[in-house]
Amino acid sequence: QKEVEQNSGPLSVPEGAIASLNCTYSDRGSQSFFWYRQYSGKSPELIMSIYSNGDKEDGRFTAQLNKASQYVSLLIRDSQPSDSATYLCAVRGNTGFQKLVFGTGTRLLVSP
Amino acid sequence: EPEVTQTPSHQVTQMGQEVILRCVPISNHLYFYWYRQILGQKVEFLVSFYNNEISEKSEIFDDQFSVERPDGSNFTLKIRSTKLEDSAMYFCASHGTANTEAFFGQGTRLTVV
């Protein structure tokens, strides 16, 4: 059973702080990794994708991947109350199939 | 900006009835999916569709479920005889070439009563 694990939270940070969200995955052959943001009752919205080891930055967001440790993280700098949402880690395997396997998500609360 | 469109946004149906959920993927995309999310739970894969056929399906996607791409734009999920436990948000997603980012529609909230 291929699993993606996330701490469900909530993770509470003050406005302006850095929020750090973590995810581990069990399928060592996984190739593609994604972070989605989901507001309550809404659909997943793509935030970041990362495919190789290291860091990838996009605005206030940085995704980090360590395939040896089977670990992917998302840093949100200068957190804003509007960042309050559930952050979903999604992993795509190395077979020809392209489905995403999601974690349960981490709920982030940013207080003003 | 292109987006995945789903209709209806909310569907209420009686147990045992058939429902069809509709999706218009992004126009040049090749890979299509249905996922569902039961309230308070994780997003779960149902089925993937590529090159006009199912490429993978989950254990959830039993004989009560079917998918179709009846024309060049629509992608539908049919549930033949709905059960109470089918109540969930159903998301359609698509992406272009292999291993690229998948984009989700806004979802259909299915309520079976």
Overview of the molecule:
Helices cover 0% and strands 54% of the residues of chain A. Chain A has 112 residues and is mostly beta strands. In chain A, strands 2, 4, 5, 9, 10 and 11 form a six-stranded mixed beta sheet that branches. The radius of gyration of chain A is 13 Å and the shape is globular. By secondary structure, chain B is an all-beta fold. Chain B has strands spanning 5-7, 10-13, 19-24, 31-37, 44-50, 53-57, 65-68, 75-79, 88-95, 103-104, 108-112. The A-B interface holds A 31-32, 34, 36, 42-46, 49, 51, 88, 90, 92, 96-105 and B 31, 33, 35, 41-45, 48, 50, 55-56, 89, 91, 93, 95, 98-99, 101-107.
Percent of residues in β-strands of chain A? over 45%
Helix percentage of chain B: under 10%
Number of helices of chain A: 0
What is the CA-atom radius of gyration of chain A, in angstroms?
A: 13 Å
Q: How big is the Rg of chain B? A: 13 Å
Total beta strand runs of chain A? 11
